[in-house]
């Protein structure tokens, strides 16, 4: 694996607190723009992991943590919105396997706080908790090597960068040109009072969601990440605890024949494989980093792809769906369903069917939408249209069809 094949890392300091989409844009758009501009390559695709320092987990013990799901998914939605806007402005493709001029970006929250102190004899190690979010020492121990490491020129950005370098020492020999400082945006943080802390969200052992996942793009990544945040992962030494299950229903090829530009719809196997590859970026933890390869091992059966992560404590299952309900009315042992605004009604229909069968209704969680208008109202229709091409599978297919026709081939 050459250095150019490796993903790059952008370290983002603490988000604004309190926060909204405009404040996130002010804080994070400059460094995201700088990193994407650097990685845009007319000859090859690039990958970028954005790690956000975020004291988002609460709990008295390392292995027993809780989080506010609305707060976490809102932050991730805000960052994917910025990525989509900037990519539209820079003519960067955002989908996985997007070819030249594409940057396949993954947003990760890293549990870290300003007040955390480590003694001089501290040695970083992989210490997962019961959520998918890991702390900075675990992140530094499991996520490497990198092509470039971007860090923000600010007091908070420099502190986060220096802490990361300390915890990652010995993992990768870095050349000076791999360490890239970028300008930060404007941000303010207040110290939250205990009574202001958000309420914590119950997590679950079995989560389900569904979609087409054609040309995996930022909207898909938000949905998949939001679902993974709800997983309650057992401790690896707790052999009596059932493992966490994440079931993703993926629309079968037969149901997509009438889609616009249907000849450019990716096959079910490609879409399922890309879903698991993306989720591996959130779930895989190995002290060898990516020395054994970037892609996970997948057990591929017809219409049923599976993979395991974190020593078997969490299993991913992608199943082919041929109707509007998929596994939600075929598997009784599901706890929660994740939906988007577009599939809200489908969540209600699922619960009606489950109740008819005498099964428990699912807890339903709705993910925020990616919305350029919340961030860039002043730039009007042009920005909106460019943004929508980055979060729409049909727009991606249309673009590929137009390019293919111009070249006289299918791309």
Automatic annotation (TrEMBL):
It comes from the Eukaryota. One of its GO terms (biological process) is coenzyme A biosynthetic process. GO terms for molecular function: dephospho-CoA kinase activity. Transmembrane segments: none annotated. InterPro entries: Rossmann-like_a/b/a_fold. PANTHER family: BIFUNCTIONAL COENZYME A SYNTHASE-RELATED, DEPHOSPHO-COA KINASE-RELATED. This is Cytidyltransferase-like domain-containing protein.
């Amino acid at each position: 694996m050459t250095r150019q094949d490796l993903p790059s890392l952008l370290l983002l300091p603490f988000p604004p607190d309190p926060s909204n989409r405009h404040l996130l844009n002010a804080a994070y758009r400059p460094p995201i723009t700088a990193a994407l501009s650097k990685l845009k390559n007319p000859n090859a695709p690039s990958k970028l992991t954005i790690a956000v320092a975020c004291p988002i987990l609460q709990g008295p013990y390392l292995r027993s943590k809780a989080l506010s799901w609305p707060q976490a998914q809102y932050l991730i939605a805000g960052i994917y919105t910025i990525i989509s806007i900037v990519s539209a402005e820079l003519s960067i493709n955002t989908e996985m396997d997007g070819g030249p001029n594409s940057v396949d970006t993954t947003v990760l929250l890293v549990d870290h706080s300003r007040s955390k102190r480590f003694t001089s004899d501290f040695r970083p190690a992989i210490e997962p908790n019961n959520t998918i979010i890991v702390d900075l020492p675990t992140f530094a121990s499991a996520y490497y090597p990198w092509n470039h490491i971007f860090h923000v020129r600010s007091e908070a950005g420099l502190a986060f960068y220096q802490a990361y370098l300390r915890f990652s020492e010995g993992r990768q020999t870095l050349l000076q040109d791999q360490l890239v400082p970028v300008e930060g945006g404007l941000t303010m943080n207040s110290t939250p009072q205990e009574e202001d802390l958000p309420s914590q969200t119950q997590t679950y052992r079995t989560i389900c969601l569904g979609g087409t996942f054609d040309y995996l793009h930022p909207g898909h990544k938000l949905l998949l990440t939001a679902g993974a945040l709800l997983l309650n992962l057992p401790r690896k030494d707790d052999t009596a605890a059932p493992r966490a299950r994440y079931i993703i229903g993926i629309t079968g090829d037969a149901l997509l024949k009438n889609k616009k530009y249907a000849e450019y719809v990716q096959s079910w196997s490609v879409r399922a494989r890309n879903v698991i590859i993306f989720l591996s970026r959130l779930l895989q933890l190995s002290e060898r980093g990516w020395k054994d390869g970037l892609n996970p091992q997948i057990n591929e059966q017809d219409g049923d792809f599976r993979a395991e992560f974190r020593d078997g404590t969490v299993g991913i299952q992608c199943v082919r769906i041929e109707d509007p309900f998929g596994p939600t009315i075929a598997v009784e042992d599901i706890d929660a369903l994740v939906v988007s605004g577009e599939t809200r009604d489908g969540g209600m229909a699922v619960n009606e069917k489950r109740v008819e069968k005498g099964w428990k209704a699912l807890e339903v969680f709705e993910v925020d939408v990616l919305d350029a208008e919340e961030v860039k109202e002043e730039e009007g229709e042009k920005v909106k249209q460019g943004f929508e091409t980055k979060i729409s599978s049909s727009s991606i297919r249309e673009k590929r069809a137009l390019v293919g026709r111009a070249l006289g081939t299918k791309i």
